[in-house]
DNA sequence: TCAGCTGCTGGTCCCCTTCA
DNA sequence: TGAAGGGGACCAGCAGCTGA
């Protein structure tokens, strides 16, 4: 490895502090240069400068390296100066003017492009804001409309006070529920049709409209406890099927039927209404009575003396009005 | 083996809430 | 304010389980 001294410069503060710097550059065998700086500080005079405790600043620590082997730039002198003709000067001026104009045009284009991007971004933000406002408006308007439609529907589905169970059971129909919903609450009807997928269903085995109608009936009951035509009908069915009281509890909480207590009350009310109807019919026209024995088995798995399987026996009677038969008054 | 306990069910009563 | 409905509390009957 060869060693070369490449020179150095000092700042004024270095000189006053009497430090000696030796700067060397090493060039290895592969030609790569490595700079190494060794600094020795002469403390001759044994008197430290007053500024040594001051923090080092770029000003009092600055030095630069000068490569002694670098080719020197030719000095500008009248001897080396080239003589330009007026035509060349004009050409240079024209070229510089064209270059200036090109740079100005590019700068203008850049500014215009930035402005356009900014405008597009602002437009996008405004568009997003308008879109959000439109969605909010649509949602609130739809909600208000459904709310008003729903109130009308609930009022329509509420039976009159003291309405006979017989009438409720006779007129109840899921098709009627759907038809009334379509007329009185078209927005809600369309919404439920889309949610259930019944508007596009072609299945002949599963009528999704029945699910929509059932859902409407359950929601109506949720909104108004008096609107219970559907639940009154279903509770009669579940009673006839022998559903247990706990099953009634579950179905009642789901809004599918009345409570067991109300179901029994409705059944008794229905029995009283039919008995009254029988009295009326039997006093106004000729009737025929059909009776039959009724046997209900109450089985006990493990019979004991005080707990045995047994049959409850009774007699049922069915009254049939006779039309076209003279009735003596 | 059996008395006592527990859970389920049906029924009734009463209080509270909702709605017209 | 009355009607309608929900639900909790309570009772009775029945059946299954368990420990003495």
**Low-confidence stretches at least 5 residues in length (pLDDT < 50)?**
1-63, 300-307
Structural class: alpha+beta
| Major beta sheet summary | 3 strands, antiparallel
Number of strands: 5
Form type: rod-shaped
**Portion in strands:** 5-15%
Strand order of the largest sheet: 1-2-3
Order of helices and strands: EHEEHHHHHHHHHEE
**Count of helix runs:** 10
Question: Roughly how many Å apart are the termini?
Answer: 145 Å
Helicity range: 40-55%
Rounded to an integer, what's the Rg over CA atoms?
Answer: 53 Å
Mean pLDDT: 69
Question: How do the strands and helices of this protein lay out in sequence?
Answer:
Elements: E1 2-5, H1 12-16, E2 19-27, E3 33-41, H2 58-61, H3 86-157, H4 165-171, H5 174-184, H6 186-196, H7 208-223, H8 229-240, H9 245-253, H10 260-284, E4 287-298, E5 310-321
Antiparallel strand pairs: 1-2, 2-3, 4-5
Helix pairs in contact: 3-5, 3-7, 5-6, 5-7, 8-10
The chain binds a DNA duplex (20 and 20 nucleotides) through residues 158, 161-162, 224-226, 228, 244-246, 252, 258-262, 264-265, 300-302, 307.
Would you give an account of this structure?
This protein has 329 residues and is of the alpha+beta class. Among the domains are: 2-45 and 55-61, no CATH class; 165-284, no CATH class; 285-329, no CATH class. It is 52% helix and 14% strand. It has 10 helices and 5 strands. The chain has helices spanning 12-16, 58-61, 86-157, 165-171, 174-184, 186-196, 208-223, 229-240, 245-253, 260-284, and strands at 2-5, 19-27, 33-41, 287-298, 310-321. The strands form 2 sheets. Strands 1-2-3 form a 3-stranded antiparallel sheet. Strands 4-5 form a two-stranded antiparallel sheet. Strand 2 (19-27) and strand 3 form a beta hairpin. Helix 3 crosses helix 7, helix 5 (174-184) packs across helix 7 (208-223) and helix 8 (229-240) crosses helix 10 (260-284). The radius of gyration is 53 Å and the shape is rod-shaped.
């Amino acid at each position: 490895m060869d060693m070369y001294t490449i020179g150095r410069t000092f700042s004024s503060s270095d000189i006053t502090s009497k430090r000696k710097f030796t700067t060397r550059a090493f060039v290895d065998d592969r030609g790569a240069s490595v700079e190494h700086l060794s600094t020795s500080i002469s403390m001759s005079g044994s008197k430290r400068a007053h500024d040594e405790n001051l923090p080092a600043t770029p000003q009092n620590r600055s030095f630069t390296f000068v490569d002694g082997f670098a080719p020197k730039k030719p000095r500008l002198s009248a001897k080396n100066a080239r003589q330009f003709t007026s035509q060349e000067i004009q050409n240079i001026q024209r070229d510089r003017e064209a270059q200036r104009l090109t740079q100005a045009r590019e700068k203008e284009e850049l500014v215009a492009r930035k402005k356009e991007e900014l405008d597009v971004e602002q437009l996008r933000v405004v568009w997003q804001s308008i879109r959000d406002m439109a969605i909010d408006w649509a949602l609130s308007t739809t909600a208000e409309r459904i709310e008003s439609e729903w109130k009308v529907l609930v009022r329509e589905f509420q039976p009159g006070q003291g309405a006979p169970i017989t009438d409720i059971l006779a007129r109840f129909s899921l098709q009627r529920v759907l038809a009334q919903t379509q007329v009185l609450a078209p927005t809600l009807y369309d919404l439920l049709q889309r949610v259930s997928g019944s508007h596009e269903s072609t299945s002949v085995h599963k009528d999704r409209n029945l699910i929509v109608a059932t859902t409407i009936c359950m929601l109506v009951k949720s909104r108004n406890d008096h609107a219970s035509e559907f639940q009154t009908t279903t509770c009669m069915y579940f009673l006839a099927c022998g559903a247990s009281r706990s099953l009634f509890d579950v179905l009642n909480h789901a809004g599918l039927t009345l409570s067991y207590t109300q179901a029994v009350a409705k059944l008794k009310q229905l029995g009283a209404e039919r008995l009254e109807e029988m009295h009326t019919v039997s006093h106004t026209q000729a009737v025929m009575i059909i009776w039959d024995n009724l046997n209900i088995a109450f089985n006990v798995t493990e019979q004991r003396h005080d707990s045995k399987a047994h049959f409850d026996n009774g007699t049922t009677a069915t009254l049939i009005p006779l039309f076209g038969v003279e009735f003596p008054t």
